[in-house]
Amino acid sequence: MLARLIRILGDFDLAEDALQDAWVAASTTWPTRGVPDNPAGWLVTTARRKAVDRLRSVAASERRQRAWGELSITWDIGDGSQPIPDDRLRLIFTCCHPALGLEAQVALTLRSLGGLSTGEVASAFLISEPALAQRVVRAKRKIRQAGIAYRVPSPGELPERLAAVLAVIYLIFNAGYLKSSGPELVDVDLCDEALRLCGVVIDLLPDEPEPLALAAMMWFQDARRAARVDADGVPVTLEEQDRSRWDGAGLATGLDLLERAHRAGPSGPYGLKASIAALHVAAPRSDLTDWGAIVRLYDRLLEWEPTAVVRLNRAVAVAMADSPAAGLALIEQPGLADELVGYHLYEATRADLLRRSGRLDEAAASYRRARAQTDNRAEHRFIDRRLRQLADPAPR
Amino acid sequence: MRYMLIIHNDPDLHPIPGSAEWDQLMADYGEFSKQLVEQGHTFTGDPLNDPSTATTVRVRDGETLTVDGPFAETKEWMSGYYIVDFDNLDQALRCAAMIPSAKFGSVEVRPVAEM
User: How many CB pairs under 8 A join A and B?
Assistant: First the structure.
């Protein structure tokens, strides 16, 4: 099993990291904070380990069985009719069926596969317990009434359906990641859950490259937790992070998983995103990053996800590989600009490239527009710092 | 379990009657129905005339209100339906994806409530 104990903290979205000097997208959904690292962090780690142990206990499996009682799904207690691994696979694909809304998929997955209680899931996503319970009830009703079958998708359906499962797992991971450091003792670590669930999928579908790639990505992200936020709680860009604070063991685990993914088969979107992350990870200093290779990976990613955000990220890579002007030319293309109107990371990215081009007044104007487009306090502080630097550039 | 596959047309994307694309669409529908028969599905289905031929009736407080036009004035309009017997939703969704109009419009898949 892949599942390992995960450390606390952190809040970066991997795709946004490639934006480099632009901005960490994950900050948009961060609860408003400002609390720096805490000596009680060690205690929190221990508490979370205990939580994982508890979840894996017999009590948890009994809760799962009760929760699915009305659908007559045997769970850990095999009745001999179905092998247990297949049962879990059926359950995962049923919980993540595209006919269910994404929020319902996440709630069902955590309730049924994670063995988490309604209260635990609700508090993890900052919604009320009755609201979450309603969501689960409605999802189960839809499964019943619309005839969603308890089955593993056929080979033709598998790529798309597996992508849906991985999207849910990654969403859970990021939700855990964004519940940043802090003195609160949280009962459940969603990052732990996500890695464990990914491990289940890897065990059950060992020949599939994408689950391995997703696991690699999550390990990379997790390994950078300690460096992502400075002492004042303000996010630090990938370029400016102290790489000595990255967890070497975590990075090595991620690289090993990525290696296994490459051996398992051709890369899909997660394989490409993990490979981009691996290139960042491989550079001992940010200025030693192989940006040309990253641009080429984004070219391939665009074939899978021809979205404005991926084009934006690619433009940043081009800016680093060629010149800020080249990157600006790409992001200022009318098509891209129109699609991303109101998306503050667009303005923040533009601001950063203008800054690197020496067009400081324009950069400041762009940063101010970006600031107005987000309510997140941590982001405001990041932007304010950039604005101060523009007004009074000091040697770095 | 029976499902209704409700076909919604997007006039901006739909082939124009009389064009080569239209002829191809009709041929595709013929092929689709044939496949349903070959796969042994019990089904009914019909195309509908366009919304300009529609009339909407409401009865409120004993009074009948008759209005020219469809229920909702939307860009996309209901252009036909199938009611097919399937084992589960995945089968219904696979079938819906094969309906020729799914390329231009959308197909809503809803289970028939069995009384």
Answer: 27
Q: So what's the ipTM on this one? A: 0.85
Q: Within an 8 Å CB–CB cutoff, is residue A144 touching chain B?
A: no
B5 DSSP β-pair partners: B82, B109
Sign, CA dihedral A113-A117-A120-A123, equals: positive
A193 to chain B, closest Cα gap in Å: 28
Q: For residue A159, which amino acid is it?
A: P
Q: Which residues of A touch B3 (CB under 8 A)?
A: 147
Put simply, the answer to whether B89 touches A147 (Cβ < 8 Å) is yes
pTM of the model: 0.74
Q: Which of residues 5-64 of B touch A (CB under 8 A)?
A: none
Residues A96 and B1: their CA atoms lie apart, in Å, by 22
Please name the residue of chain A whose CA is at the shortest distance from the CA of residue B86: A147
Composition of chain A by helix, strand, coil, percent to 5: 65, 0, 35
Write out the two tokens for B89: 């939703």
Q: Residue A370 carries which side chain, given as an amino acid letter?
A: A
Which among B88, B90, B111 is the nearest to A145, CB-wise? B111
The Cα–Cα gap between A63 and A51 comes to 15
**Residue B54, both tokens:** 């529609």
Amino acid at A121: V
Q: B89 and A145 in contact by Cβ < 8 A?
A: no
Q: Is B111 on the interface with A (CB under 8 A)?
A: yes
Interface contact A151, partner B, CB < 8 A: yes
CA angle A6, A240, A173 (to 5 degrees): 25
User: For residue A153, what is the nearest residue in chain B, using CA coordinates?
Assistant: B90
Q: Which residues of chain A are within 8 Å of residue B108 when distances are taken between CB atoms? A: none
**Cβ neighbour number for residue A62 with a 10 Å cutoff:** 14
**CA A120 to chain centroid:** 20
Q: Helix A209-223 and helix A190-204: axis angle, to 10°?
A: 160
Contacts of B1 in chain A (CB under 8 A): 147
CATH 3.30.70.1060 fits B2-111, yes or no: yes
Residue by residue, pLDDT tens for chain A (396 residues) are 232 233 333 333 333 343 433 343 334 334 454 544 544 444 444 444 444 444 444 444 454 444 433 333 333 333 444 444 577 888 899 999 999 999 999 999 988 887 678 888 888 788 899 999 999 999 999 999 999 998 888 888 888 999 999 999 999 988 887 765 443 434 458 888 899 999 989 988 999 999 999 999 999 998 888 888 888 778 888 888 989 999 999 999 999 999 999 999 999 999 999 999 999 999 988 899 999 999 999 999 999 999 999 999 999 999 999 999 999 999 999 889 889 988 888 999 999 999 999 999 999 999 999 999 988 888 888 999 999 999 887 655
Q: Write out the two tokens for A357.
A: 């081009």
- What Å distances lie between residue B38 and B43, B58, B82, B89, CA to CA? 12, 41, 16, 20
